Amino acid sequence: MPLSATDLQAAIPRIFAPWITAMGFEVLDCGPGGQVRLRLPVKPEYVHVGGVMCGQAAMAAADTAMVLAMMAELGEFRPMTTVQLNTSFLRPVSADHCIVQARVLRSGKSLAFGSIDLLNPDGRLAVQASTTYALL
Questions:
Q1: Which tens digit of pLDDT belongs to each residue from 53-80?
Q2: What is the value of pTM for the model shown?
Q3: In the chain, what are the domains?
């Protein structure tokens, strides 16, 4: 049975470390084929001296969104680990929130591949990441 956005939202505190839960992700929607869209508030603790969200927060958001996308793809949580996370920072995130969109590109028996975009509220692409996961 497919997972809903509500199912994914409820899974966040069960699956992730407390500091990830504290980031305040809101699951906006999820779709077939391992797609998920989240809203991430840009809290003051994520902003560095330049006044923009730091890369570490963006990478944590990308990794978290991809796990949720994998859950949407599989219909459940399965243990997995990040093998590779390649991130390109195209423009700053300087708003009070950003949108995180993740989608599974391919899911095999032992490896899965995904793509994640972080968008400014105006829809402009700020961060693009690609990832590989090992399914355990």
A1: 999 999 999 999 999 999 999 999 999 9
A2: 0.96
A3: 5-135 (3.10.129.10)
